[in-house]
Amino acid sequence: MSSINEKPQADMSESPAPERVQSNVAGVDDFDLTPQEQRAIMKRVDIRLVLTVGAMYCVSLMDRTNLGATNIAGMSEELVLIGDRYSIVSLVFFVTYIVFQPPSTIIVRKIGPRIHLGAITVLWGSTMIGMGFVRKWEELAALRVILGILEAGFFPSCVYLLSTWYTRYEVGKRNSVFYMVGCVASAFAGILAYGIMQMAGLANLSGWRWIFIIEGIITVLLGVAGYWLLVDFPDSKRQTWKFVGDRERAWICARVNADRGDVRPQPFSMAAYLRVGTDWKVWAYALLFFNTTTITYALAYFLPMILTGNMGFSVGAAQCLVAPPYAFAGIVMFATSWVGDKYHLRGPVVVFNMLLCIIGIPIMGFHSNAGVRYFGVFLVTAGANSNVPGAMSYQANNIRGQWKRAFCSATFVSFGGIGGIAGSLVFRSQDAPYYKPGLYACIACALLNVIIVGVLSIAFKILNGQADRGEKELEDHEEDYQPGFRYTY
After folding, report:
1. What's residue 14's pLDDT?
2. The pLDDT of residue 13 is above 50
3. Residue 22's pLDDT band (boundaries 50, 70, 90)?
4. Is residue 40 included in any domain, yes or no?
5. Is 15's pLDDT higher than 60?
6. Positive/negative CA dihedral, 140, 142, 148, 150
7. Are 427 and 300 in contact (CB under 8 A)?
């Protein structure tokens, strides 16, 4: 691919000719691409990249959160999940999920997304199939540990990959579509699980075992397809599928570089990679995601049981009633991301989502009418799940440098895994059927996120003001410096 640095910048003092157009990032040469060609390029990128990783994330979410469906489908009785055994089986996944995430963003850069993501998807799908044949709860817990190792590399690698293809105010909608495809599609896993349950008795296997087996087979097939459909980083020379040509990729790299100045990674240095951890803002973003995923995982693991125990719905109804709140969440998710991209807002989107949770959790937990409590489920599900891409975009807009981006993606998602552990524990079996301590914990997480956004907004205002006055650069390290970069509130 020809170097984009060899092409001179367009002269911004003159208006472009009518048949040509400057990129939507100021100062970027259009590489003789018409507006129609530019839109077509980005549409091809969206289809090949966003939809592919979204579909793969669908099975990732489905495979890590289908315990709730299998538990009420007979697994609890057959494997004798008494006491805290169900919580143990839920949370052991996150131990290895957290530990094995930091290396993933380095590995995906070295070997490429197609091999890395395709291989781990096939392997964890095979692990899911194995869960359908366990005879003891300890065997299930052991396979969940292996599942955590394999899934650890998926989400941070996807977040990192998406951030390299789009400018700061394009990534919000793409993050929302990526997560929405996975979230909404996996929401219908309850309906899918209910249908698969009807296979009970086939080959002398229980219905809950078939849930693991069939969903595992789907994952393996999608992992194989992912190898052929996934794309590499825009600056990579490993491209084998020419869905965009060299000139088109050069234009993509140029516009991302003009927006952030970090399209190409610096040579890897472990010291420089770990030095990113000295920036307190990195941990604030990670804590935002911890609080968010505590709520989302608590819902994913325990909502079927809340619907059957707290609200009195049947098992079949509970499996199906999980889907509508997630469908509503998809609408809210895309709407808030669209507003955030259009008006260059990030913090207010996070606050809005958390307010939905703060309003919805008391309704879900404490109202006397089951129908009204179910309405509260809509608000909580929408707020918590919309905040996943919201927090992703908030973080992505306010970091620079490829290895800093890689480090932040790993820590960000690792804290999300810690939130998964917390979400596995907040709704304890001894608190059934009302789970009041868990509800209070989720409210506290939402409130803490509002406070974190407030603190970050004050810090951004101070730092941007110092940079405007020429008192301080926004980055501590020369390789991450870009004149004109400002934090997004």
Report:
1. 38
2. no
3. very low
4. yes
5. no
6. negative
7. no
Which pLDDT belongs to residue 276?
Answer: 83
Domain region containing 101: 32-260+268-480
Question: What CA–CA distances, in Å, run from 370 to 33, 308, 364?
Answer: 57, 11, 9
Q: Which amino acid is at 485?
A: F
Residue whose entry in the numeric block shows the structure tokens 């981006």? 405
Query: Is residue 21 in a domain?
Result: no
Tokens of 57: 């994330």
* Higher pLDDT, residue 100 or 285: 285
What pLDDT, on the 0 to 100 scale, is given for residue 98?
86
Kindly report the length of the chain: 489
Residue 428 has pLDDT above 70, yes or no: yes
Number of structural domains found in the chain = 1
Instruction: Identify the CATH number of the domain in which residue 129 sits.
Output: 1.20.1250.20
Percent of the chain with pLDDT over 90: 35
> Measured between alpha carbons, how far is 68 from 299 in angstroms, rounded to an integer?
10
For the chain, the three-class secondary structure string (H helix, E strand, C coil) is CCCHHHCCCCCCCCCCCCCCCCCCCCCCCCCCCCHHHHHHHHHHHHHHHHHHHHHHHHHHHHHHHCHHHHHHHHHHHHCCCCCCHHHHHHHHHHHHHHHCCCCHHHHHHHHCHHHHHHHHHHHHHHHHHHHCCCCCHHHHHHHHHHHHHHHCCHHHHHHHHHHHHCCCCCHHHHHHHHHHHHHHHHHCHHHHHHHHHCCCCHHHCCHHHHHHHHHHHHHHHHHHHHHHHCCCCCCCCCCCCCCCCHHHHHHHHHHHHHHHCCCCCCCCCHHHHHHHHHCHHHHHHHHHHHHHHHHHHHHHHHHHHHHHHHCCCCHHHHHHHCHHHHHHHHHHHHHHHHHHHHHCCCHHHHHHHHHHHHHHHHHHHHCCCHHHHHHHHHHHHHHHHHHHHHHHHHHHHCCCCHHHHHHHHHHHHHHHHHHHHHHHHHCCHHHCCCCHHHHHHHHHHHHHHHHHHHHHHHHHHHHHHHHHCCCCCCCCCHHHCCCCCCCCC
pLDDT exceeds cutoff 50 at 117: yes
pLDDT in the model for residue 450: 98
CB within 8 Å of 399: residues ≥ 6 apart: 282, 285, 405, 408
Residue 16 inside a domain? The answer is no
| Interval 288-312 mean pLDDT | 84
Q: Is residue 26 part of a domain?
A: no
Average pLDDT over residues 57-86: 84
Give residues with Cβ within 8 angstroms of 58, minimum separation 6: 181, 182, 185, 186
Q: What are all long-range contacts of 466-475, with beta carbons under 8 Å and residues at least 24 apart?
A: 475/400, 475/401
Q: Which two tokens stand for residue 254?
A: 């140029």
- 321-344, pLDDT tens digit by residue? 888 898 899 899 999 999 999 998
